[in-house]
Amino acid sequence: MSTTTVAKPTAPKPAPGRRRVSLPVVLLIIAGVLVLTSVVRLITDADGITSTGQMSTALRLAVPIGLAGLGGLWAERAGVVNIGLEGMMILGTWFGAWAGYQWGPWTGVAFGIIGGALGGLVHAIVTVTFNVNHIVSGVAINILALGATRYLSTFTFENAEGGTSKQSPPIDSLGTFDVPGLSGWLETLNQKHWFLVSDIAGLVGGLITDLSPLTVVAVALVPASWWVLWRTSFGLRLRSCGENPVAAESLGVNVYKYKYIAVVVSGGLAGLGGAFLSIVASNIYLEGQTGGRGYIGLAAMIFGNWMPGGLALGAGLFGYTDSLKLRGGGTNVHALLLLIAILLVVGALYLLWKKRIVPAIITGAVSALMFVWFFATDEVPNQVVTATPYVVTLLVLSLSAQRLRMPKADGMPYRKGQGK
C-alpha cells in the first residue's frame, strides 16, 4: 500500500516593490514625521506650520482634491481612466453656483453633483459604448467644460445682480461649527508651543474647528467608498471589471452597466468637489476656480495606490502645501526646507541599508542642497511658495512610482463578448 503526499500550496511571493505597507508601519511613519516636524518648529520658531488655523485651512483645501481623487478611484477601479476630472469639477462649480444663488446652497450642492455626473455620463458613453481612447475623451471633456461654462456665464451671471460674465452673484453660506469645548481647549493647547503636544493639538484641532457640514460629508465619503468597493458584492463586481472584464462577463457580470455606474459616480464626486469650491471655499463661482485640482486629485489617487486611505493621505499632503501660500507662506516653506532635508537624509540611509548605492548618493546630494538652501536664506520667495503644491505633486509621483499597482485592465479597450 502506497501513500501519496500532496504538497501544500504556497502563497505566491509578492513582486519586488509591490509589498503592501501595513497599517502599524504607516502609523509609525506618520508619528515619526510628526516628531521631526515638531523638532523643526522648535529650531526655526515657525509655529505656523502646525497651528490650528494652518491645519483647518489645509483640510478645507484638501477636500476638493480628495473628492476629485475619490472620483478617479471609482472610475479606474472599474477600468476607465478619467482624465476628465478637471472638467467635471468645472461643471460642478458652475452648476453649484448657478443653482446655489437662486435656490440656496444645499440645492447648489445637489446641482453641482448633477453637473459633474453629466460630465461622467458623457465620458462613459464615449469610452464604454463607443470605445474611444480614454485620454482623448477626458481631455475633450476638460476643454468642452471650460468652453461651455464660459458661454453659459455670459447670459446667466452677467445680467444678475452682483455677477459678471466670469463671476456669479454671492451664494449663501452653509455655515460652520466647532466641537463645543474641545475645539477651544485644543487651540489653547496649541498656542502653548510645547514639543509634540502642541503640534498634535494643532493637527486634531484643525480637523474639528470651523467645519462646514459639507466637509464632514466629504470626509465620510472616504470610508464609505472603501466599504462599498471592498466589503460588498457590488464593489467586488465593479472592481472585477477593472481587473479582468472578460472573466467578470463569463461569471454573469454586466460589465457595461458597472462601468457606467462607476464613471457617473466618479463625475458626481468630482462635481461635488467643484460645488465645494464655489459654495464653501469662496461662496461665488469664478472662472478658472478649480486651478488644476482635478489633476492634483488624480495625482493623489495614484500616490494612494488606488486605495481610499492612501488617497486621503495624498489629498491631505497636497492640501497642506496649498495652504502654505495663504498663511505666512515664505516663512513656513523655509522651515519645511529643513524638514525635507532631514527626511531625505533618512531616505538616503534607508537606501544604503537596502544596498541601493546610486539612489542613496543622489538622495544624499539633494539633501545637501536643501541644507545649503535653508542656511543660505531666511525666507523663500513667493514664486516658490505658489509653485509648492505642483512641485510636491511631481516629487511625490516620481518617488512613489515604483511601488504602484493600478488595476490590470485600467484604460484597456473592452467589447462585450470579446472573450468568446
Q: What fraction of residues sit in β-strands?
A: under 5%
* Structural domain count: 2
Quaternary organisation = single chain
- Stretches with pLDDT under 50, minimum 5 residues: 1-18
Number of helices: 16
CATH-derived architecture of the largest domain: Orthogonal Bundle
Straight-line distance between termini = 46 Å
Output the helix-strand order: HHHHHHHHHHHHHHHH
Report on this structure.
This protein has 420 residues and is mainly α. The chain is built from 16 helices and no strands. The relative contact order is 0.17.
Topology of this protein?
Layout: H1 23-44, H2 52-77, H3 85-103, H4 105-129, H5 134-156, H6 182-190, H7 197-207, H8 213-231, H9 233-243, H10 245-250, H11 255-281, H12 293-303, H13 308-323, H14 329-353, H15 357-376, H16 382-400
Helix pairs in contact: 1-14, 2-7, 2-8, 2-11, 2-12, 2-13, 3-4, 3-5, 3-11, 3-12, 4-5, 4-11, 6-7, 8-9, 12-13, 12-16, 13-16, 14-15
